[in-house]
Design brief:
The longest helix has 15 residues. The protein starts with a strand and ends with a helix. α6 links the parallel β3 and β4. The strands form 2 sheets. Strands 1-2-5 form a 3-stranded mixed sheet, with helices on both faces. A two-stranded parallel ribbon has the order 3-4. The protein has 9 helices and 5 strands, in the order βααααβαβαβααβα. With 185 residues, the chain is of the alpha/beta class.
Length: 185
């Protein structure tokens, strides 16, 4: 989760990175991708996006979940529980988040509504929730870059991307899915 007060500044990061992708050579295909994600761009674009994010006034909160070989059901309730936990990390801030931009993960309106209801119930306070499509709103690609940097660091021990963001990480938790489910009951 990225907490920021200057969304217009963040909204410029992905378009600026896209403009720096060369129109010739092996990385030219990145320029025409409908959505720039950590997993489908080269090292230069990763570094450009993460460095721009690191120089922005943001705080990053992350949760690394050890699934222990289990699968996590992709339900509005599970996602709301995870998002609520991340939002609660930021409660200690002088200006806790009240407006949440969520990647439009669920295709149906009823699933998004169930997510919203569950999230507000878990947070025990009203929040303004917007579900945005990451292909239409490039700002929604930034959490993917943060997650990718953390995932590579945890899974492979490659910390070069994580190190770029280290100063912005205000909270990070490593927890097993089994323990998390027990706490959510």
């Amino acid at each position: 989760m990225i907490v920021a007060s200057d969304l217009p500044l963040l909204a410029k990061i992905i378009p600026a990175a896209r403009r720096h992708i060369p129109s010739k050579g092996k990385s030219k295909k990145e320029r025409y991708l409908p959505e720039i994600k950590f997993s489908n761009v080269g090292d230069g674009t990763k570094e450009r996006v993460l460095s721009s994010l690191a120089s922005s006034p943001v705080d990053v909160y992350a949760m690394v979940i050890d699934k222990e070989g289990r699968t996590i059901a992709d339900t509005p309730e599970n996602l709301a529980s995870l998002v609520a936990r991340l939002v609660n990390y930021a409660r200690g801030r002088p200006d806790p988040p009240t407006h949440l931009l969520i990647d439009r993960h669920f295709p149906s309106v009823s699933q998004r509504s169930a997510f919203d209801i569950r999230l507000e119930a878990l947070l025990k306070r009203p929040v303004f929730i917007e579900h945005l499509d990451s292909q239409q709103h490039s700002i929604m690609c930034l959490p993917d870059f943060v997650a990718g940097a953390i995932r590579v660091s945890v899974a492979r021990g490659d910390t070069r991307w994580y190190d770029i963001l280290k100063e912005q990480i205000a909270g990070e938790e490593h927890v097993s899915w089994r323990r998390l489910r027990q706490q959510l009951k």
